[in-house]
Automatic annotation (TrEMBL):
Name under which the protein is recorded: Cell surface protein, putative
Species per Swiss-Prot/TrEMBL record: Psychroflexus gondwanensis ACAM 44
Domain of life: Bacteria
SUPFAM superfamilies documented for this protein: YVTN repeat-like/Quinoprotein amine dehydrogenase
A UniProt-annotated Pfam family: DUF5074
Amino acid sequence: MNTYFKFLVIAISVFAIISCSSDDDNPQPVIPDGDYFNGVLILNEGGSAGGSVSFLGADQQEVVNDIFAEANDGQGPGLFLQSIFFDDEKAYIISNGSDLISVVNRYTFELLGTVDSGLSVPRYGTVLNGKAYVTNLVEFSTDQDDYVAVIDLETLEIEETVIVGGSAEYIVSIFGDIYIQNASFGNGNTISKLNPISNTITETLQVGDGLNSIQVYNQKLYALDSEGVKRIDLGTFTVETEINKPEALTSVSNLRIENDQFYYTSGTAAFTTSISSSELSSEAIFDYGSDSAFGSFYGFEVNEGQIYVGDAADFASNGSVFIYSLEGQLVKEFNVGLAPNSFYFQ
């Protein structure tokens, strides 16, 4: 081998080693396949003709409506869509009017499977250790038949049902346990703790009347009721701090927490308070002046410095989404599907 060729081989080898090392040290982000990987999913409850899902891209320039039907040859996800929960690249869309959960790829919205038996007015879900835990309201005349369906995510079969002993509404998982809001439609004042190993309710904590929101933040559970916000220590499952509601606010709903700030609504106005405060603020960030009798703040979420509002208008025509800055300036407004009730960020 002549000296020039030997030098060339060495140079190529060194370059290859450096290139591989550089790639390993600086891995490129993996961009999922699909049109819906960067933006916000908007769930539209719908009516007797069925619900739908809209998508707003990260640039907030255009809403694409009815993406489920578009990806699945016109098929819809069911009647009266309630919520979506996620497990990695899968999204689980709950239809409480059809007693159905549609499983889709969260980025393409291609239908992968369904849970279509064993549900009765399903509401919310959470995932823990390969299982989904989904609350079911059953009969509206009583809360004693409400249950949590335990679903094997490999087979999409219900393995077990757990009677809650009260309303089964919003549900969250943290530290290997599951917490259930035992209140719906303004009634109820307890939170239940479910042990996923024994699938039994092990403890119930009483808070204030009118419990309407629970949120997990910084390893604590927060509950919003008619008295204000309660911070719950999950180790002892007791209320450790209370942040009182001022008399100037007749009611409060829709608790969200971001960057150590509470966000909540009252009437057609949104408010914010530091989590270190002893009383909730009654000074509105904005009042969007909805004239909807029952559809104002039908959806509400806070994400990356913006407040998202879903307004259901008259529940017969398409709803609207408003995006506000944290200072209360209207940033964007879009028409979406019927009765937008929740937002999910991709």
